[in-house]
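Supplementary Note 3. Input sequence used for the single-chain structure prediction.
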Amino acid sequence: MTAYLAEGVRLFEDGQYFLAHETLEEHWAEAPEEDRNFYQGLIHLAVGFLHHGKGNQKGARLQFGKASTRLKDYPDIYQEVDLALIRNFLEAAPAALDRGETLTPPKLFRPVG
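The predicted structure, written as discrete structure tokens, is reproduced below.
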């Protein structure tokens, strides 16, 4: 896990979605091609929670859908990020939004070992 990714994950898990987005976006710009969808997926996840927190459920749904598309081809654990848990969240999010529920963000970090 790179320092940028670790900081982006920390900020996300602290509920600082805008700063998580900004931090991850900085790293995405320089990431190897094979990691770009991974970072973009995490960025979309963070932006989805920004929208959700502001009551923009349509925007949240759109961003969560983009995150799902970007993250679908990666293994369940990638760079110590629990993508299986994130994908489960993203699959359940539309129905939860339809019910008007407040979404609980998934934990991102899963240490190796």
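Helices lie at 3-13, 17-28, 33-53, 57-71, 83-98. The mean pLDDT is 91.
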